[in-house]
Description:
This protein has helices at 2-11, 25-31, 49-54, 59-65, 70-84, 133-151, and strands spanning 15-19, 40-45, 88-94, 110-117, 120-127. With 152 residues, it is α/β, with parallel strands linked by helices.
Amino acid sequence: MQKVVERLKELNLKIATMESCTGGAIANAITSIEGASDVLEFSAVTYSNKFKIKLGVNAETIDKYSVYSMEVAHEMAYNIKKFAGSDIGIGVTGKLKRADKNNLQGEDNKVYVSIYYNGIYHDLELTVVKETRKENKEYILNKIIDKLISFL
Length: 152
């Protein structure tokens, strides 16, 4: 993440995240780097559909595609960018090898990541297979870092 933060600073870019299953892992990784406040002003952990909707995700998108979908990840990324007034928005939704009694649709080991920048969605559809939630979050975080580095 050091490389990402340095590159964001060089480009004078701001980033914001709306995370669900990663529980703030991206924001935590950014804020662990010196000078993070130069690139991150706001992030949200939206575990419930209610708060995804409050931050701009369309309830009809959730109903049509499920909260665990790339369509919802797109709306999360776009809306957090817009809400925070940042240059880049990241949306993450999915399940870390666990069923969700409130949202039965979707595979229990799929995670959808969307990074919205310059009108383009940079997407990742990941299958998590690690034993623990912590290991799966680290896996997802590393994939997001790789994706950010690839286009910054």
